[in-house]
């Protein structure tokens, strides 16, 4: 199955969806957003990474920033923070450059490695887009964490590939139905930038719109 461009979802949404399906729906379906210190720091870090004047070449490595990527097979689009092209005898040709290159995606995150897989899945999703665009195979990539100032190598396994495809399929189903799931309150909710919008402790609100409609009706009575 292939998706049309007007059906594409944001690649970055996979980290929200993996962390909390309700958070993803609030952002991408209901268009709700609130910024906390974590998201603000993250935005500043990405602005620096995406500076177009920071493009460079280091010996046999070409470095591209804010590279637009997409996949018809998964129905997603977005940007890769950094993509390195490493000169290699078994790589691909790049227009305007001599030689062959392997593709190496790098995702930038402000904090430190998480217990969950949300960052890893976002990187894998980017790798799958790059594979489709360049007709190549990408065995690994990396995540650079601002707090530890180091790269964490990620192997792009068959299991992760399958998981990413299944998650995007589920995301498309939610989006087509405009479905915002319920949530069970947990400690993770405290750090969520949408905590005050989501109101997880209420537990019964299926969507923000329904909740606000209920409040307005109560005020009119």
TrEMBL record:
Mg(2+) or Mn(2+) required for ssDNA cleavage activity. CRISPR (clustered regularly interspaced short palindromic repeat) is an adaptive immune system that provides protection against mobile genetic elements (viruses, transposable elements and conjugative plasmids). CRISPR clusters contain sequences complementary to antecedent mobile elements and target invading nucleic acids. CRISPR clusters are transcribed and processed into CRISPR RNA (crRNA). Belongs to the CRISPR-associated exonuclease Cas4 family. GO terms for biological process: defense response to virus. Keywords: Antiviral defense, Exonuclease, Hydrolase, Iron, Iron-sulfur, Manganese, Metal-binding, Nuclease. This is CRISPR-associated exonuclease Cas4. It comes from Faecalicatena orotica. Its cofactor is iron-sulfur cluster; Mg(2+); Mn(2+); [4Fe-4S] cluster. Residues 12-199 form the DUF83 domain. GO terms for molecular function: exonuclease activity; iron-sulfur cluster binding; metal ion binding. Pfam families: Cas_Cas4. InterPro entries: Cas4_exonuclease (IPR051827), CRISPR-assoc_prot_Cas4 (IPR013343), Dna2/Cas4_DUF83 (IPR022765), PDDEXK-like_dom_sf (IPR011604). Its EC number is 3.1.12.1. Transmembrane segments: none annotated.
């Amino acid at each position: 199955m292939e998706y049309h461009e007007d059906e594409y979802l944001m690649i970055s949404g996979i980290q929200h969806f993996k962390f909390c399906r309700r958070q993803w729906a609030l952002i991408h379906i209901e268009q709700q957003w609130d910024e906390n210190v974590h998201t603000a720091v993250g935005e500043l870090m990405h602005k620096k990474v995406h500076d177009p004047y920071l493009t460079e070449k280091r010996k046999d490595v070409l470095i591209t920033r804010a590279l637009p990527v997409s996949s018809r097979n998964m129905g997603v689009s977005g940007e890769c923070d950094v993509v390195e092209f490493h000169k290699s005898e078994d790589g691909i040709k790049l227009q305007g450059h001599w030689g062959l290159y392997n593709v190496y995606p790098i995702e930038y995150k402000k904090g430190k490695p998480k217990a969950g897989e949300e960052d890893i899945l976002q990187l894998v999703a980017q790798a799958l887009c790059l594979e489709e665009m360049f007709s190549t195979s990408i065995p690994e990539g990396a995540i650079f964490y601002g707090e530890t100032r180091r790269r964490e190598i990620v192997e792009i396994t068959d299991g992760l590939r399958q998981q990413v495809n299944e998650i995007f399929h589920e995301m498309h189903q939610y989006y087509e139905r405009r479905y915002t799931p319920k949530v069970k309150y947990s400690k993770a909710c405290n750090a969520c930038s949408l905590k005050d919008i989501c109101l997880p402790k209420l537990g019964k609100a299926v969507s923000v719109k329904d909740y606000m409609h209920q409040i307005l009706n109560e005020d009119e009575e």
